[in-house]
From TrEMBL, chain A:
Domain (Rieske) ranges: 5-101
Alphabetical UniProt keywords: 2Fe-2S, Iron, Iron-sulfur, Metal-binding
Protein name per Swiss-Prot or TrEMBL: Rieske family ferredoxin
GO terms, molecular function: 2 iron, 2 sulfur cluster binding; metal ion binding
NCBIfam families in alphabetical order: MocE_fam_FeS
Taxonomic source organism: Mesorhizobium kowhaii
UniProt cofactor(s): [2Fe-2S] cluster
Length: 104, 363
């Protein structure tokens, strides 16, 4: 059965930005695209243990703050060295001004 | 700071490596000065403008000095042109390699990639292995057994450090490494930081580099002139002194095995010409703490966080004068290091890992 959890309010994330969301001992990254859509991925870079929420969002790309590894946060695709492993993504929906992510 | 009777083991697959991983010193969480997210986002913003401007100046200066060298070839007048050309080729390529490797110089990805590949060739660096070694350098800065880019190990080999200014040692290491990689061999150290799926790319890149050097040598033989070698390859010898002059100061004489860049990295104020050649990497504490901030924003970052950092050295001369007695002392006591004072406005150093015993190399 799908488990949806409330990650944040829509106004908690600026456009073309990312915030960190911790839940159940796990960490996630919640993105707001330049087109005002929301996305969610695992919070750590797949290369090293660095919080992606400290990184830079540029269009569809999140850049890791540690080694500048880049992912497409919409698909999770790794976009070249030093990241080789794709990022796990999670379904997102917006309800009553809240960003919900499906983690189960 | 106790007397060191054991030698550090700088291998990346040895006892130091094992201990660094077991103790959590490897891939640790590092100290960062607090910077509001909004400010940091502004600082991290990419722009093509400054790097395009600087790259046009850089390429024009390279072509101009090369043209002068070629024009006056066979007379003493070529010497000043090649002195300039050598520094542009053998030294400023290092900072271009570095910034474009981070992907911060330009906003446009392919521009970073093109300049990265060109600069890697100029430096005789395998663009694949060095990208990974530099990622490791940022994960585990000056962690013995983990960092592949420790320029001066302890106890310091002063003759080696002096020879570095001539480029001879780097040349002697870099060219055979490229040839070895071209034959499909990666060392155990290289394999420790280049993921398996990327290793074949290192071999292909090395083959391209070696092919260009073979063509350059063939041209020199065909023309029976050193000119092509003076233009391609040899600048790595006669022009790398500025890279060493500025690069050695990044970490020399400071702490190892710590997780606070303020303890193991140095910021030095430099003249504008050196800053152009070095692309502002004199703000090195700032760069290590926030590697996503482009070179052109580092002075602004420095102003924002300097209250939390040791006072920068006011000049390269000052920094070398400061570090020289430390190196002399390290000849006898290799655990000795320079611990620079923090201003009263700074948060205390994070040095918990430094209390751990430095593992010894196998006798």
């Amino acid at each position: 059965m799908a488990v949806w959890v409330e990650a944040c309010g829509v106004d908690d994330v600026e456009e073309e930005d990312v915030i960190r969301f911790d839940h159940g001992g796990r960490t996630f990254a919640i993105y707001r695209s330049p087109n005002d859509e929301f996305f969610a991925t695992d919070g750590y870079c797949t290369h090293e243990k660095a919080h992606l929420a400290d990184g830079l969002v540029m269009g569809d790309i999140i850049e890791c703050p540690k080694h500048n590894g880049r992912f497409n946060y919409k698909t999770g695709a790794a976009k070249g060295a030093p990241v080789c492993v794709n990022l796990k993504t999670y379904p997102v929906k917006v309800e009553a001004g809240k960003v919900m992510i499906q983690i189960g | 700071m106790t007397a060191g009777k054991t030698k550090r083991d700088y291998s990346l697959v040895g006892e130091s490596t094992r201990i660094a991983i077991e103790t959590g010193l490897a891939s640790a969480e590092w100290y960062h000065t607090d910077v509001p997210r909004k400010t940091m986002k502004e600082l991290m913003q990419r722009s093509d403008g400054p790097a395009i401007r600087d790259t046009i100046i850089w390429i024009a200066a390279i072509l101009g000095s090369a043209a002068g060298g070629i024009w006056f070839w066979g007379t003493w007048w070529c010497v000043p042109f090649f002195l300039v050309y050598g520094v542009l080729y053998g030294s400023s390529s290092d900072s271009r390699w570095h910034e474009c490797g981070h992907g911060t110089a330009f906003r446009t990805r392919w521009m970073n990639d093109v300049v990265y590949q060109i600069a890697s060739f100029m430096l005789m660096r395998n663009p694949v292995t060095w990208r990974w070694s530099h990622a490791r350098h940022h994960t585990d800065t000056i962690i013995v057994g983990r960092d592949a880019e420790i320029a001066v190990m302890r106890p310091p080999d002063l003759l080696r450090a002096a020879l570095a200014f001539t480029g001879v040692l780097d040349f002697r290491y870099s060219l055979p490494t490229l040839v070895r990689n071209a034959f499909g061999n990666l060392s155990p150290d290289e394999k420790s930081f280049v993921p398996e799926m990327e290793q074949h790319k290192a071999v292909i890149a090395a083959r391209w580099h070696v092919a260009i050097y073979v063509a350059t040598i063939a041209l020199a033989l065909y023309l029976w002139s050193f000119l092509s070698l003076v233009l391609i390859g040899l600048p790595r010898l006669y022009g790398s002194w500025h890279m060493v002059l500025t690069g050695l100061l990044q970490h020399i004489g400071l702490a190892d095995n710590v997780t606070d860049h303020r303890l193991n990295t140095r910021t030095v104020y430099m003249n504008p010409i050196s800053r152009f050649i070095y692309w502002n990497m004199n703000y090195h504490v700032e760069h290590h703490m926030f590697p996503m901030v482009p070179y052109h924003a580092l002075p602004k970052l420095h102003e924002l966080i300097k209250h939390d950092l040791p006072e920068p050295n006011p000049s390269m001369w000052h920094a070398y004068r400061e570090v020289w007695p430390v190196l002399i002392k390290q000849l006898q006591y290799e655990d000795y290091f320079l611990k620079r004072e923090l201003p009263p406005t700074a948060r205390p150093y994070r040095e918990e890992f430094h209390a751990l015993t430095v593992p010894a190399a196998a006798e």
